[in-house]
Amino acid sequence: MADEYQSQEEIKKNEEALDQFKMNLFSLEDKVAIVTGGNTGLGQGYAVALAEAGADIFIPTYGKAEWEETRAMIEKRGRRVEFMDVDLTQEGIAEEVIQKAIELFGHIDILINNAGMIKRNPILESKDEDWRRVIDINLNVVYYMSMAASREFAKQKSGKIINIGSMLSFQGGKFIPSYTASKHGVAGLTKAFASEMGAYNVQVNAIAPGYIKTANTAPIRAQKERNDEILARIPAGHWAEPSELMGVAVFLASPAANYVNGHILAVDGGYLVR
Question: N or C: the chain end with fewer CB closer than 10 Å?
Answer without folding.
Answer: N
